[in-house]
Automatic annotation (TrEMBL):
Coiled coil: none annotated. This is Outer membrane protein beta-barrel domain-containing protein. The keyword Signal applies. Residues 1-21 form the signal peptide. Keywords: Signal. The keyword Signal applies. Pfam families: OMP_b-brl (PF13505). Residues 9-184 form the Outer membrane protein beta-barrel domain. Transmembrane segments: none annotated.
Amino acid sequence: MKKRFAGLVAVAAAVAGPAAAQRAERPVSLEIRAGAAFPIQSFGQAYGDLDIGSGYGVSGNVTFHHSPAIWFFAGYSYNRLEARPGTDPASYKGEDAAVDQGFDAGVRLKLFSLPRRVEPYIRAAGVYHRLTLHGTRAEGEDAPGFSLPDSYFSLGFAAGAGAEIGLSPRLSLVAEATLTSYQPRYGERANAALQAEHVRGDAGIRVRL
């Protein structure tokens, strides 16, 4: 009787083990990243020769792990870059900015696995972003500042490559470089002369929920 009971326990443990492992590998995760943003040269030239410099960006997304190699994600990103007229940049305050923000959704593909749980990947996304440009004259300057109203949300794309380093079954470090490009829309149609493009390099964490 004891041998039979021990055999049943062993079989139950063998069946429950993989099931418990599957429950631990939840297919949903949260990712948060922050880093530096750098404009593509044509970005500022389309806005009256604005001198658009570097800035910072933050983003967050929720990811569904469809398979070990294919993940789908959706989230929001915010990028703030310095923006000053190229003809007289010294007369403007430091808060002058080009702010690009909006929604992102796409797919991430794992390329292969390296030692120490390092996994390089590429990803592509559609973006639904808008752009705000504004600047304020420094004290003592009589001329008005510059500004454009918030653009309508416009469709564009983002493409990136990065690597993920697993620290535990639920926590990973993530580093990525991403190009974002879209045409801000201030009327019924997007103007081909207005192009918002920047590259962002950032790092963050991913947590399985």
